[in-house]
Design a protein that fits this description.
Layout (H helix, E strand, L loop, with lengths): L25 E3 L2 E3 L26 H36 L25 H8 L3 E8 L2 E9 L5 E4 L1 H4 L4 E5 L5 E10 L4 E6 L9 E2 L10 E6 L7 E17 L9 H7 L13 E3 L2 E3 L7 E9 L11 E3 L4 E9 L4 H4 L11 E5 H12 L5
Parallel strand pairs: 9-16
Antiparallel strand pairs: 1-2, 3-4, 3-6, 4-5, 5-8, 6-7, 7-8, 10-11, 10-15, 11-12, 11-14, 12-13, 14-17, 15-16, 16-17
Length: 370
Amino acid sequence: MTENLRPSGAHSTDQDPASYPYASPYTYDGTAYNGTAQDGTAYDGAAAGGYPPPPAYAPTAGRRRAKRPVALLAAVALAAGVIGGGAATLVGQLNDGGSAATGSGSAVNGTTVSQSSKGTVAGVAEAVSPAIVEIGAASSAGKSTGSGVVITEDGEIVTNNHVISGAQQIQVTLSTGKTYTADVVGTDPDKDLALIKLRNASGLKTATLGDSSKVKVGEEVVAIGSPEGLTGTVTSGIVSALDRDVTVAKDDSGSGSGQGQGQGQGQGGQGGGGQEWPFEFGGQQFNGDTGEETTTYKALQTDASLNPGNSGGALINMDGEIIGINSAMYAPSSSAAGSGSSAGSVGLGFAIPVNTLKADLDTLRAGNGS
């Protein structure tokens, strides 16, 4: 018989007991390690004081299976957060009309058509009408009615020079019916543009100035103004042509044959003979005599109906952005029309491109003109 030289209580295998320092008993998946199983049966010599086989904290496959649901839940939670955030953003945009502040909290963003009404005349009208005003100008030559576009919340308003030329008093009526007195800040007769400012105004709805260089022939447009004193009148049409050379009178005196009377009346057709603002196009004169001192600018042509009083109002794209300031419209003379003091629109209107206005704003604000 071969003598067993192992000390009493030594492990009965050739494994090195120093490699298994796990002495605390535990149970995993119904099997006991480092001690006794749940049914009291000794495991692998543990009851004899021997070392058990090397334990594993958890089988590899088991650990992988345990991780998958956790990872899946984390991924689902992350996706839900992303989707939820996007949905919240979309809901917020719909609730505030689709506008989002891009700068500081005090920035004025202007009008924006809501997503649900985007591309519709009704949506554009609802969004932009609050920023379009009626202008009443009184001078020694009589009274005139025109329109204007609010561009700052404290009451800066853009209009045509011929609407306020020679005015001794200017009264502005908002879409809400509230009235203000306004002062002339700057005029530019060469571009037929003017900037006026309301007294003691704040928190006004403002228009968004677009980019007229992107305008294409055939695009739908909306015109808003106060023809014949009918505040907030909305018409629609398309852009008929680009870069039309339109010539208008630029005399600020409010006197003289034809153009003085026309300037005194603006396009309101109220008093003093009721002439509309005269202009030249294609070598012909319309709405009266433009006189000797004139200026020519490139205009957008539109078939949106414009009538006396639309001057200074807005020509708007279907995103609710101002692309032009309505400045001239052709109407057959009363004699050609057969009767009445003036004739309505025949779908031949012109607007000063908004990029011309944006390039001129600093000059107007400084009280200077070209």
